[in-house]
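Notes continue from the previous slide.

Worked example: a multi-chain complex. Inputs as given:
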Amino acid sequence: MTDITPEQTGSNRSRSSTELVRQSLARRNRKQKVLQGFGIAAIFFALSMLVILVGSLISTGYPAFTQTHVELEVFVDPEEVDTENLSRGNYDDMIAASLGAYFPDVDMSSRIASREVTQVLSSGAQLKLRDRVLADPSLIGETITIKVPASDNFDQLNKGLIKRDTPEENRRLNDAAIANFDTLDAAGVISAPLNTTLITSADSRFPELAGLKGALVGSFWALLVCFVISFPLGIGAAIYLEEFAPKNRLSDIIEININNLAAVPSVVFGLLALAVFLNWFGMPRSAPIVGGLTLALMTLPTIIIATRAALKAVPPSIREAALGVGASKQQVVFHHVLPLAMPGILTGTIIGMAQALGETAPLLLIGMNAFITSAPSGPFDSATALPTQIFIWADSPERGFVSRTSAAILVLLTFLIFMNAIAIYLRSRFERKW
Amino acid sequence: MYDVPHGRNEVAVTDVKITARNVQVYYGDTHAIKDVNVEIESNTVTAFIGPSGCGKSTFLRCINRMNDTIDICRVEGDIRIDGDDIYDKRVDPVQLRAKVGMVFQKPNPFPKSIYDNVAYGPKIHGMARNKAELDDIVERALRRGAIWDEVKDRLQSPGTGLSGGQQQRLCIARAVATEPEVLLMDEPCSALDPIATAQVEELIDELRQNYAVVIVTHSMQQAARVSQKTAFFHLGNLVEYDDTTKIFTNPEDSRTESYITGRIG
Ligand SMILES: Nc1ncnc2c1ncn2[C@@H]1O[C@H](COP(=O)(O)OP(=O)(O)OP(=O)(O)O)[C@@H](O)[C@H]1O
Ligand SMILES: [Mg+2]
């Protein structure tokens, strides 16, 4: 370029245009650099925010994935068990007795004295023993080894979240209680295995007994109801609007309204559901069926918009080809257009379902933030959902719920990431070049 | 002017298959076809020639009502096939398109297997009673599309994976698989090499035994080689329509003469 002198190019005009391009090129390159710089800065900012968010969740949430347990040798005293009704028995006395072995100085028959020691254990410990005996009555009269959860404060102590160097009056546990715990620790019966309770139990007032099972099952039912309603309805509506509806004022108005519907704040859908489903139709409060219906209202516009975009993206030449061999409109749609649009539709649907999974406000309004200690057995039972469970735990005063809230958020995020990963996989797997 | 081979251009005494009377086509406010009158004969290859944008494709698409799919397109006038008005309210365009096959300007195979591309039309029309019959139909169509030898070993691979010219011949095979009475071809050879072009021209000549074939082409030589009748369009008008031999040797209109001698286009 540079070795072409004006004489060689022969024409003034071409020389000056080369010159012009060269000059403007520098300016254009500079602009592009600035734009790229902004882009990289924005991505860096977004990524660092994400890292901070997930980092803080993990650092507060990881203690909740283990739970301090105490291993006890319990003699299942036949005199304490009501053989007629196994669930009635003084299981707490048996536990206290077994704990007493480590504290010879304490009179375990006195409730007040033994309380000092038994407070190390969760109040769920006796239930665990009871369930073992209920499952296998032949254990009566035997001495069994059982791992029971420690109560929340001692769990916190074991995890170092209650600091020993805090002055005693500012600490939730006094020195005597810590000494008791240390006695057990020295005896080697304290351990901190994986906290399976977090997944296998429903909610509880005691953090060490609380789990997400109720919320997971509740979310599952709500999402199932949401999917079953919004997927066929959304695709049907989109196909009609995109392929069959006449293009006139009415269809324009419908289109605008659907787009607006997608932007309506979710709390409004909650109020609508409260008024219509609960007060008018008299459907059960706190039930996943109502939650699913509400979420379906919200997901419907997302699915309709995604489906219409996917249908529109199918090139007209395919439609013409099918029409050209004599396919009817409906055959064109169902044999050619819909299968080609399916990956896009599924992607949109999964993203809509992921939104629904994380939606909180409408579920609060229909009462899915109730305190329910058993998992629902169907969509008509009272239940919570993952986000409302997080809401409940975040609101609970017990220390143990702080880390459990973060842990629950991590569980929710895992599901969301998983769903989005499927959407991305579908998109790349079925991406087509026409 | 053109080397017109003997045999193919002989005009037999034939019936009129398609009659168009005072056809006007509008795309919104654009008047794309202006008052076209034409009679297309069966057992004849009719060529539409004319400069780009003069409305050849538009008129062709009127004959199988493909323009119905374009919202802004409006067709006026009267087009009859075998005496029946195809724009009559009682006529189902689906049935019409089964009778009037079309090969489009751009190859547009379905993103399905080669086999399914060809089998689709016969399947939806219920032309085969069993798999063996369908196999026969597919093979026959692919042979007539002059592509059988290239694809017979990979009938299950996707039609979109073929080269442009192979795709176009696949589309021809797909169009003839439904045994239409009229075949509309919009520049079927624009993506083909001379050998494939010769094969397609052979096919067109063969199809003429049973069908009316209308072909849009930018190649004067091709029009001269394959057609018996030629229509010259210019700016939406049908300028001249006559025997191919006449058009290429002794055109009446000066615009026709300018075009075929390469002075406008
Ligand atoms: N879908 C459409 N919408 C609006 N105008 C159109 C449309 N299709 C064609 N036209 C217009 O109609 C006129 C005729 O177009 P047509 O496609 O029939 O030309 P053609 O003769 O087939 O040209 P070519 O040889 O380039 O294929 C052109 O002016 C074009 O701009
Ligand atoms: Mg054209």
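Summary box: The mean pLDDT of chain B is 89. The CA atoms of residues 133 and 204 of chain B lie 24 Å apart.
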